[in-house]
Amino acid sequence: QVQLVESGGGLVQAGGSLRLSCAASGRIFSINDMGWYRQAPGKQRELVAKITRAGSTNYADSVKGRFTISRGNAKNTVYLQMTSLKPEDTAVYYCNADLVVTATGIYDSWGQGTQVTVSS
């Protein structure tokens, strides 16, 4: 099986910055796309940013120019650098790993979520 462990959430004032990290563990051969989603209270989960194994990225319009997604050299970690944070960025942020190829199968995996709260 695959585990995704997130870290880096917290409370920050508007205009501040946070960096989220997510590390995948298990008997992993490769991971295709990795990304960050978020879910605010009463709202559906939405894509924030995604990065392919080759490094191509895409972002939600609401975070373009403020957030940057990247992957570690081992390709099993993903980061989200968030700057110029706004109160509307407050949500639980989830890490996702798509098409994780392991010794026992191929999985789509989710982290447990990390809370990001931006105060005004």
Explain this structure to me?
The chain has 120 residues and is mainly beta. Helices cover 0% and strands 59% of the residues. It contains no helices and twelve strands. The protein has strands spanning 3-7, 10-13, 18-25, 28-31, 34-39, 46-51, 57-59, 67-71, 77-82, 91-102, 105-110, 114-119. The strands form two sheets. Strands 2, 4, 5, 6, 7, 10, 11 and 12 form an eight-stranded mixed sheet that branches. A hairpin with a 5-residue loop joins strand 6 (46-51) and strand 7 (57-59). It is elongated, with a radius of gyration of 14 Å. The relative contact order is 0.33. The mean pLDDT is 95.
In terms of DSSP E residues, the strand content is over 45%
If you average the pLDDT, what whole number results?
95
**Percent range for helical residues?**
under 10%
* Shape verdict: elongated
Give the quaternary arrangement of the chains.
Answer: single chain
State the distance separating the first and last CA atoms. 40 Å
SSE ordering = EEEEEEEEEEEE
The poorly predicted ranges are: none
- Count of individual helical segments: 0
Count every beta strand, where a strand is a DSSP E run of 2 or more residues: 12
Gyration radius over CA: 14 Å
Major sheet size, sense and barrel closure = 8 strands, mixed
Question: Strand pairing plus helix content: what structural class?
Answer: mainly beta
